[in-house]
Amino acid sequence: MTAQIIDGKALSQRLRVGFRERVAVLREHGVTPGLAVILVGDNPASKVYVGNKVKACADCGVASFHHALPADASETEVLARIAQLNAAPAVHGILVQLPLPPQIDVRRVLEAIDVHKDVDGFHLYNVGGLVVGNTIFPPCTPYGVQLLLETTGIDVAGKNAVVVGASNIVGKPMALMLLQKEATVTICHAKTRDLAQHTILADILIVAAGKPGLIVPQMVKHGAIVIDVGINRLPDNRIVGDVDFEGVKQKASWITPVPGGVGPMTVTMLIENTLRSAERKGIAHDSWDAPTVTVD
Ligand code: NAD
Known about the structure:
The protein is an alpha/beta fold. Helices cover 41% and strands 15% of the residues. Strands 1-11-8-7-5-6 form a six-stranded parallel beta sheet. Strands 3-2-4 form a three-stranded parallel beta sheet, sandwiched between helices. Strands 9-10 form a two-stranded antiparallel sheet. Strand 9 and strand 10 form a beta hairpin. The chain is globular.
């Protein structure tokens, strides 16, 4: 068996066509959707991620407001900037690029963002909402994975889903979203003993550990759907995921490539959340139904 490729880049482009139409409708209502991005310091990877988000905004007709603060900015300064953006009517989404320098308490910063502008979905309210399946903004990476899974046409309900990685931004919310869709969910992490014993049972295997080559074919069930969230830069500068793509492709039914799988979807779902925020704020009182994103 050779797996079919789940093409995140192509799905992103399809979704963005719809986004541009939604932006046009918003503009007719006098609203330009806006995303504010706060970058503290000059971490090169963070700069690239912020650059990609700003580019995605431009691509879809969303205004972006880039707030660069120096690496030695105090927590008070960051909180003051967030307060300003919380009050700014042109800003529908606020994103603080992580990681933050050590003098700044990440949780305090994330909790300061107005939950109605928390388009990354990292505020405690949005995280907690995942438990009961009623979050305002689903976190972008798991949200993107959910749509990639939908493109396979396979119903998640009743499937064994194994999530490798238990971070607050990917693994844990991913597991909760799969549980909400009635999968039987296992979460594995760095302390899990005998990882293969769990992964081999997965009908749906989602890997977000940040360890290149972690998942090899012997660990994968024939016909599994494999989603590789990992992004790792090798010493020769190649970007790879956590899954041995060439090997696992021979056993899986569907697989995401890296790059071109989950990565583009993460940025696209950020735009989706920003649009949804603008739609709620800008035209919620008209007799107009805000569209929810779906996959053909
Ligand atoms: P993290 O470091 O916060 O968490 C990693 C998780 O993996 C932890 O729960 C850890 O216990 C687990 N883990 C580590 N080694 C393991 C092992 N050998 N076996 C089982 N579990 C193990 O990382 P993160 O922020 O969740 O990101 C994970 C990966 O996903 C990274 O490569 C990151 O670059 C990538 N990422 C990609 C996107 C995207 O858009 N594609 C978005 C976010 C993160």
